[in-house]
Amino acid sequence: MKLITAIVKPFKLDDVKTALKDAGVAGMTVTEVQGFGRQAGHTEVYRGAEYTIDFVPKVRIEVLADVMDAERIADAIADAARTGKIGDGKIWISDVDRIVRIRTGELDADAL
Amino acid sequence: MKLITAIVKPFKLDDVKTALKDAGVAGMTVTEVQGFGRQAGHTEVYRGAEYTIDFVPKVRIEVLADVMDAERIADAIADAARTGKIGDGKIWISDVDRIVRIRTGELDADAL
Amino acid sequence: MKLITAIVKPFKLDDVKTALKDAGVAGMTVTEVQGFGRQAGHTEVYRGAEYTIDFVPKVRIEVLADVMDAERIADAIADAARTGKIGDGKIWISDVDRIVRIRTGELDADAL
Amino acid sequence: MDAGNTAWVLTATALVLFMTPGLALFYGGMVRGKNVLGMLMQNLMAMGLMAVVWAVVAFSLAFGDAGNGGFIGNFEFAFLHDVGPELIDQEFLGFLTIPFVVFAGFQMTFAIITPALITGATADRLRFPAYMVFIGVWLVLVYSPIAHMVFGGGWLADLGALDFAGGAVVHMNAGAAALALVLLVGRRKGYPETPMPPHSLPLTVLGAGILWFGWAGFNAGSALAADGIAAQALMNTFLAASAAMLGWLVVERIKDGRATTLGGASGAVAGLVAITPCAGFVGGMAPIYIGLIAGAVCYLALGLKKSFGFDDSLDVVAVHLVGGLVGALLLGFFADASINAAVADEGVFLGGGGRLLWYQVVASAVTIAYSFVVSYAIGAVINATMGLRVDDAAEDEGLDLSQHAETAYAD
Amino acid sequence: MDAGNTAWVLTATALVLFMTPGLALFYGGMVRGKNVLGMLMQNLMAMGLMAVVWAVVAFSLAFGDAGNGGFIGNFEFAFLHDVGPELIDQEFLGFLTIPFVVFAGFQMTFAIITPALITGATADRLRFPAYMVFIGVWLVLVYSPIAHMVFGGGWLADLGALDFAGGAVVHMNAGAAALALVLLVGRRKGYPETPMPPHSLPLTVLGAGILWFGWAGFNAGSALAADGIAAQALMNTFLAASAAMLGWLVVERIKDGRATTLGGASGAVAGLVAITPCAGFVGGMAPIYIGLIAGAVCYLALGLKKSFGFDDSLDVVAVHLVGGLVGALLLGFFADASINAAVADEGVFLGGGGRLLWYQVVASAVTIAYSFVVSYAIGAVINATMGLRVDDAAEDEGLDLSQHAETAYAD
Amino acid sequence: MDAGNTAWVLTATALVLFMTPGLALFYGGMVRGKNVLGMLMQNLMAMGLMAVVWAVVAFSLAFGDAGNGGFIGNFEFAFLHDVGPELIDQEFLGFLTIPFVVFAGFQMTFAIITPALITGATADRLRFPAYMVFIGVWLVLVYSPIAHMVFGGGWLADLGALDFAGGAVVHMNAGAAALALVLLVGRRKGYPETPMPPHSLPLTVLGAGILWFGWAGFNAGSALAADGIAAQALMNTFLAASAAMLGWLVVERIKDGRATTLGGASGAVAGLVAITPCAGFVGGMAPIYIGLIAGAVCYLALGLKKSFGFDDSLDVVAVHLVGGLVGALLLGFFADASINAAVADEGVFLGGGGRLLWYQVVASAVTIAYSFVVSYAIGAVINATMGLRVDDAAEDEGLDLSQHAETAYAD
Ligand SMILES: Nc1ncnc2c1ncn2[C@@H]1O[C@H](COP(=O)(O)OP(=O)(O)O)[C@@H](O)[C@H]1O
Ligand SMILES: Nc1ncnc2c1ncn2[C@@H]1O[C@H](COP(=O)(O)OP(=O)(O)O)[C@@H](O)[C@H]1O
Ligand SMILES: Nc1ncnc2c1ncn2[C@@H]1O[C@H](COP(=O)(O)OP(=O)(O)O)[C@@H](O)[C@H]1O
Questions:
Q1: Cα dist. D63→A15, B44, B82, D367, F143 in Å?
Q2: What are the residues whose beta carbons fall under 8 Å from the beta carbon of E316, sequence distance 6 or more?
Q3: What does the pLDDT read at residue E272?
Q4: Of the residues A36, A60, A77, which should be mutated to test ligand 1's pocket, given the most ligand atoms within 8 Å of the CB?
Q5: ipTM attached to this prediction
Q6: Do residues D70 and E218 make contact, with C-beta atoms less than 8 angstroms apart?
């Protein structure tokens, strides 16, 4: 089984969700994160003191999937999340030994 | 080494923590996340505008463990987190090359 | 490709960021998490009721890297995050099949 | 009609009105984040519904036929009949030098906050419709009679019991009703094993600040004039709040090892409660002594719910029932005729003997018993018919979503 | 000079001043977290800039040459000339028993909050410098003339239209200007597809509480004395707010299935708006009827923006324009000479026939038309020259960062 | 006794009392989330402890033997002896037309907020017990003497220096004490390298709103009557706050490129501080000029801590010491006998020459020097005995947990 993890811009979450639904994905898990990379952060000023904030808000999306679906899902996320501007984020795919659905104890593909 | 990741219902966190302690697990890391899946979200109303929120609050639990403990720990989590109702969540196990305890530099099993 | 994940003390985040920059790392993703482990939590009191909070705030840092850089990066993080006191956290390295840069579709090392 | 007195009672009315949003925040900060709107909304609804019920009938039942020495008023002022911008021409109320309508308005703000006080006890588990019915009926059957007996020249006033601004009418009354409801609805799911810490103490401190501010109107406004008694009541109010904060924190520090922010805010409120019956009847250092005692005793009264196993979630019994009782009884010791000529029997410490203290005991007992019994009865009927408590799933989800389809905080 | 009246107007001035921070929070809680400082700052800026413009020229344009039956005042009080601690010696304003400077101050607080009301409509997308220019010009060209026509003894007052505390001058005026601006700046990015739920309803409830409290000063202060009319206005204000909350929630419950916290707070504000023109002119149960109607109608008016496709983000049109209009027209039915001798023609329900109602229609139409047209013109000029709206990137980033280089919340 | 005057001073007392919770939120929003309760609690404790110390002895030391032209009062009013609902029969205080107890109460609210102002400077690092001891001693040794010298008919009053509502007694005094403490406790860990942005600017704006509102009582209440001087003071207060917001923001915009929300709120407070000594002594456009100057100068004074390397965390020196000084000195230019007959020497701009300005310089210098030296001494003794500062681990953990075993926010 595979785990697809994507870091995307927060306002793209809805588009990604729709794309995943269209790709037949039944579930995902989302986390608010802070990203650091090429995309510039911003500057804040408080009573004359200027702070540079390097981190940019992002969301992290995790999707468990069958081996043969993983590439397709990654592509779907990439297409939905792309704006073409710096900071669109990354997607990575990694191996999972086993997946369990807690409710039923079903395993792997059945657990999705 | 293995990494066990579980997505469970927030109010089950305490039970899972107890079960892990009982299973001899010394540590874990917990993240607040939003889950999307079979479990329905909810509807909110603001001045006549109705919004459907698909996401459901969940917690993500990560436990690093020795290869031979992984299954047992996953089972312990599953047992503790199960309510039998839709939305109980998923557990997955994946491979880890190496674990380091930052404080001492100990590796792998010694780092736990 | 490799994914280096580190759980560190929040006030060490800045030092780790600097160390990573020095190590030539171009990006990372950071999540606020709660850690449970050897480090004691704390006690709160509300109108005579005492609560023990086991969890300790931590940050989780993820860095995608080339296979050959992974160890070096893990070491850099460990050095920067170390205080020598209990609770300094863990670092682990795991395998990644593929990395995609969403903006360009570049893969693996080119995606970093 | 006196413009100075009117100016002050107008101000005081606005101040007391402001207390209910303050209370909403005070309580709202203490509940979990999934229940904060439920709490705010119950308090808002008290502002909405109680005002209308007051205008329709409750004011008249409280202050109609004022001075009859009886148990309840009549319907003479129902639907605000004869309640207008002129002075009222009636024997008992004839002392008023302010437009009658602002007297009705000032008293209305008391009728709003009293049921609102109860909401702290039953936090996180009341069905909203049942709550509305409860407070609507309660105002008429519980609040109006007690207000009449004490403030409206009813039999407790005739007896000689003193209650300057509502130690009995407001605080013991709300506290006893809270206890009754808590026994009916039972404990929150997970109480006491699961910690349920306050979700926003800054909101609670803000609420306490607003209450403290508004209480100036509550107590000093109860003089119904801008005179020396109002001035004394104001000073007493502030001194008691301060001293009670210290009293609470000292005991907390000794027992728990820390002086907490929630303790500071709670102690101040306990002092404000305790000084309420005494505000215009005592002077000098008495408010400080009353405050110190009330702060310490109310802190200790937090233990009651543990001992007796009920879940008075935000400690309405410890703060309002016990605090109100402490104030009412201490008035029996500190009442001072040199401050207010209305003090016919001075307190024990002023050489007046135990007579006033006895009246205070009687009035307190009557108030608590009446309120507890009738509140319990109203609650039981509602519970049997429409159900007081949300179901398990709704309680897990929180009142905000289950009762109001809202979440308090978003990005 | 009367100390009692002065005491009350001093208090009322402070209360109305406090409404603008309250409004800031009421609105600020409703926007997304990345725009809350933008909202707060626009309201703060109204407090900063409007006061200075008022002192320099706007007060004089509103109340100079008072009683001239015309369209605008003059420059006699520009730069606060002759505005001091003494009584004013002028025919039309001669009824005042308070220092002239506090009259100017009291009216100033109205001039601050009126443009601030507009900010809810254009939330999340105005450029800060453009906003400043807009309100600065608007106060002089829109607010002052309308205030003069209605409050300053101008032609609408002469006509016989009544507006106790600003149903036209404040609410319809702000509502019409809001509509004009909204048409000019267009919708928020993503509206209406993307949900933009309130980021902190507790802030909104707090803001509503402050508004409710401050409105005591707004309406009862408009009596400019601590008399029976002030007392009646206070009671009416509170009753209307309560009743409107109920009216709104009943309709909301029926249409949406839930009574919401935001609905409760909004309903109360709608009632406060509607009672504003009526406050010192009606009595008895009238405020309750006015409130009930206003709450229900304003809730229904939320649908306007859907029907007509404009993005009045926080419903300034539904609450202020419609609410103010409902109040102004209902005054034509409920005005009562027994409450206030200034009521020359009583309302329809008091047997006065339709004359007052007709004046109310005229005054409302004139106010709305004048405000809409001139506001649109001012906005259009600013839009063409400096641009009213932030660019796309700034809107995505949020006003807090893009306009003020700040974030509202941190660890 | 005058009911109108009493009504106003009652109101003003409540308003000033409300300022301390406002200040708590103003400061509390600016600190990091782990220290907010520490900040709120220090302010709450000022409300608790200062009131009791005031009643016991500090009031008497400030206003006992009033008019003696000396340095300090006596013990005649200790334990509130003779402080009651009647008029006071004393030569210097004989002008009062209000119950003496409300005068004591009004002044008490000043004695509460003054030490509370200091807490902004030492944010995030004071031990709570040490703080309590400090303010307790400070009130007696620093506040009471300065209040006596200036307000109580002491030698600075006799000299001819003017201070309408506490530019010296409250603001320069608190600012100088803040500087002394900051030098003693040192900088926060990580300052200035680590950014420590405000954790909740909406709380700060709310706090500023409450302060602005309460300042109406602070300044206009200091007239101790509801008269033309009070009215003028109210107007001046509001105009100065508004103008100072503009002054601050203009300079901020030029220097930092942005007008910030924190800047808007801070500027308004700076204006309120600066107008405090002038409020009842100036008129016309003077408050606007004073505000504009104060806003700009206080913004520039933020640089002092950078230049001199001290960590005055929330800028108490820049806002209160500098703001108070700017106001006191500008009074030497703008004081106007036509506004207030108590102005014996008019300001430079009114043709009074430099005499008043000289008195203002002397009074300011004496206040600052006295407060700085004695505050430093008290702080040094406490530091040497019990320690002023929390240890490193406690500072990392934050005051909320380390001092009060609480966290401000939870789910
Ligand atoms: N090496 C990395 N490891 C983990 N996350 C990364 C890495 N590089 C970038 N990211 C994440 O991807 C986000 C976008 O990266 P960035 O370099 O800003 O733009 P882009 O992906 O368009 O090149 C970052 O904010 C960060 O969350
Ligand atoms: N394919 C998936 N990838 C990642 N997380 C998932 C996936 N499917 C479900 N989840 C997570 O598991 C949670 C529960 O899933 P859900 O389908 O609602 O119920 P159940 O696990 O009982 O079938 C979701 O809220 C989500 O967080
Ligand atoms: N087995 C584990 N799996 C996942 N995370 C762990 C595990 N053990 C510890 N952690 C994380 O590492 C943090 C530090 O661990 P702790 O045992 O307190 O100290 P140390 O790493 O110094 O031994 C914990 O707070 C937790 O976030």
A1: 63, 43, 59, 17, 48
A2: E117, E118, E120, E121, E174, E175, E178, E179
A3: 98
A4: A36
A5: 0.97
A6: no
